[in-house]
Design goal:
- By secondary structure, the chain is of the alpha/beta class.
- The chain has eleven helices and eight strands.
- Helix 1 crosses helix 2, helix 2 (about 45-50) crosses helix 4 (about 70-85) and helix 6 packs parallel to helix 11 (about 230-235).
Length: about 240
């Protein structure tokens, strides 16, 4: 580390992909729904297609081309497009609504629950996610994620990488930006946080996009910490 861990007071976490396995969780539920409904669908491709609409939708909001909406609403709009793309027309409204809530039921990575508990012993731990508050609360209950508090896109009516998200979280905690560390598996998120003065921890998630995915797992000297898992991050931060 380039700084003493004592200089850090709080860790704020990206959630989708960093804390929870969105790809595996969504594909698993799509596969089960397809079995029940007698549908032929590539569940892994369906999950990736659904996720692929996420960033463009948020970017439209950030550019002022669309009003702010909760991610639940954005996910549902993308889902309708993906169902058309995969030529699935037999789901009832109740089935569509329940499938959209799969994002509330994403499973944590195997190291996440134990790693968070260790990190929480020394630091404030909070989400800093583009997910909405209700989604993140349900996910925490479902997965046993012991957050001290939840900062969401709802909190600031913004999406990352808007600086208002990173600076807003520090302000809500009454901390200086340099006393907060952003934890993420995505380098663009960490670089945006660093640009706002936050410390950064890169956690590698080789299976975020499933088997055969090609995430960038290279450690970078620009990040305060590079870690293989939350347990490794806890070790490096003295938890």
């Amino acid at each position: 580390m380039t700084i003493p861990a004592s200089a850090i007071k709080a860790l704020v976490f990206d959630v989708f992909g960093t804390v929870v396995d969105w790809h595996g969780s969504v594909a698993r539920e799509v596969r089960e729904l397809a079995r029940i409904k007698g549908l032929r669908v590539n569940a892994a491709k369906f999950a990736k297609a659904w996720r692929a609409g996420y960033r463009p939708a948020m970017d439209r909001v950030l550019r002022g081309e669309a009003p702010f909406e909760k991610i639940d609403v954005i996910h549902r709009a993308i889902l309708e497009d993906v169902l058309k793309q995969f030529k699935i027309a037999t789901l009832t409204e109740a089935e569509r609504a329940n499938l959209n809530l799969v994002w509330h039921r994403l499973r944590p990575w195997p190291d996440a629950v134990r790693g968070l508990k260790r990190l929480k012993s020394k630091f404030v731990v909070a989400t800093l996610s583009n997910g909405n508050t209700g989604l993140l609360v349900d996910m925490a209950k479902h997965g046993g994620l012991a957050w001290d508090c939840i900062f969401s896109s709802d909190t600031f009516k913004l999406f990352k990488p808007d600086p208002g998200m990173y600076l807003g979280a520090a302000d809500m905690l009454s901390l200086k930006p340099e006393e907060v560390m952003m934890v993420a598996a995505h380098k663009h998120d960490l670089r945006a946080a660093a640009g706002c003065g936050l410390k950064t921890a890169f956690v590698k998630r080789p299976l975020e996009h499933g088997r055969g995915g090609t995430p960038d797992l290279t450690s970078e000297p620009e990040f305060t910490v590079n870690a293989e898992s939350f347990l490794d991050l806890a070790d490096q931060l003295g938890c």
